[in-house]
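Figure 6 in text form: structure in, sequence out.
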């Protein structure tokens, strides 16, 4: 039985779309750009175990956004979004990971910000979305090194000085869980280091320190003049107990602690890791000094949440579920974050679904998922009292989908990757999202009573 439900969003709610540099830019050897760990990873041959890299060309060309800046911005204008979340390529701005900066890279992002300003689209800028300069991996071992937080601070200072006057929302990094666990633990993703849990937890330790350094840099030296806000994009799944027993419920809490709480608790609560991690991991988990705890605590001006296909159902190791059941309940996750982290302001900086890589303009399956996400989001705001002030659909256009390569598509706009001009063609989700933004209300169709 079909049911039509409507619910409005608060006035001034932010609607946007997002992308990541390595997924869309291409131009991997243009304009003085240096190599990133993703460039290296994508070009290496298949391993003896048969674990092939993400594809023969990875993000070498991808959606060719580097050469089609105004094409992408026209897509934003057509959607009518209030903001655009995108990432800067560290290796494009600092080819060797450190000074001197690359003038062509600075000019490229300067043009993008100028065009966004002309259209009245708010930039939400991610400093680091997984594409570490290869030079830093070679010289120091990447995030396994305690040197990296200081180098990340230097990179952030360059970005704040050059672009901060035009940016109100900064994200230091995206999904540090994936960077640490799969970059330095399992080796599934770049830089492909199979260091096991010990190295993964060490990398995460340095990622947290790096984030805190950048937040304090902005707070102490740039916030008074630029008046922006800084956070970190944290990704999570949702988990529910197999049976409603005290033990299973505690295992669900542990699952969220080991993924989201790993980074959220130090930043939003007390500067330290969740107790369930400390008691279960023993000497594997590094320790923060009391001074470091004070330094990390409170280093986010809002809670930036990613909830979608990248971590949920794809990159969450099964043992992190602690034998409980994964779910796509955004509303319950929002309620948990609201309760666990003292009712923070929440900005959803990545959400939506994916369709097959062969899909062209008809992506109704994605629309149905997004409609449900929209409705549960409005319910969380209106009925649960969760303070969500913005939503970012992922992504603006089709691109290179990390470990999935080009086998899936997540864009609102279709990209023919085989074509020379890489024109954007609107999918059915463009019309859906346009209407959602225009009306500022969730419209959920074809929802059975049983699903409610």
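Output sequence:
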């Amino acid at each position: 039985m079909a049911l039509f439900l409507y619910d409005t969003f608060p006035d001034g709610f932010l609607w946007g779309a997002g992308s990541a540099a390595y997924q869309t830019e291409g131009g991997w050897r243009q304009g003085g750009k240096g190599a990133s760990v993703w460039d290296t990873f994508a070009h290496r041959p298949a391993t003896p175990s048969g674990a092939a890299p993400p594809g023969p060309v990875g993000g070498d060309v991808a959606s060719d956004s580097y050469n089609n800046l105004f094409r992408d911005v026209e897509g934003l204008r057509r959607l009518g979004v209030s903001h655009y979340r995108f990432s800067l390529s560290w290796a494009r701005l600092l080819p060797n990971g450190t000074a001197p900066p690359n003038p062509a890279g600075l000019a490229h992002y300067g043009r993008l910000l100028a065009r966004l300003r002309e259209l009245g689209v708010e930039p939400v800028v991610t400093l680091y979305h997984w594409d570490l300069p290869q030079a830093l991996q070679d010289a120091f071992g990447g995030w396994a090194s305690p040197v990296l937080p200081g180098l990340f601070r230097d990179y952030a200072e360059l970005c704040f000085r050059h672009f901060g006057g035009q940016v109100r929302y900064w994200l230091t990094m995206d999904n540090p869980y994936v960077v640490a666990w799969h970059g330095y633990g399992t080796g599934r993703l770049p830089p492909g280091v199979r260091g096991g849990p010990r190295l993964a937890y060490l990398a995460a330790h340095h990622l947290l320190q790096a984030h805190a350094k950048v937040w304090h840099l902005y707070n102490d030296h740039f916030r008074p003049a630029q008046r922006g806000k800084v956070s970190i994009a944290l990704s999570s799944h949702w988990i529910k107990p197999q049976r409603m027993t005290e033990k299973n419920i505690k295992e669900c809490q542990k699952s969220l602690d080991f993924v989201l709480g790993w980074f959220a608790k130090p930043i939003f609560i007390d500067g330290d890791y969740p107790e369930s991690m400390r008691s279960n991991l023993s000497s594997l988990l590094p320790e923060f000094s009391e001074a470091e705890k004070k330094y990390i605590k409170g280093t986010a001006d809002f809670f930036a949440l990613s909830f979608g296909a990248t971590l949920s159902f794809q990159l969450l190791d099964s043992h992190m579920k602690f034998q409980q059941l994964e779910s796509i309940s955004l509303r319950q996750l929002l309620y948990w974050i609201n309760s666990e982290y003292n009712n923070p302001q929440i900005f959803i900086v990545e959400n939506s679904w994916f369709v097959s890589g062969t899909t062209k303009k008809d992506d109704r399956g994605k629309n149905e998922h997004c409609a449900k996400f929209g409705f549960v989001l409005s319910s969380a705001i209106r009925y649960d009292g969760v303070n969500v002030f913005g939503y970012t659909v992922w992504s603006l256009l089709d691109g290179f989908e990390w470990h999935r390569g080009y086998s899936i598509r997540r864009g609102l706009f279709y990209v023919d990757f085989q074509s020379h001009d890489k024109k954007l063609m609107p999918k059915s989700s463009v019309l859906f999202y346009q209407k959602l933004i225009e009306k500022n209300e969730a419209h959920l169709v074809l929802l059975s009573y049983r699903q409610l």
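Caption detail: The chain has one domain: 5-444.
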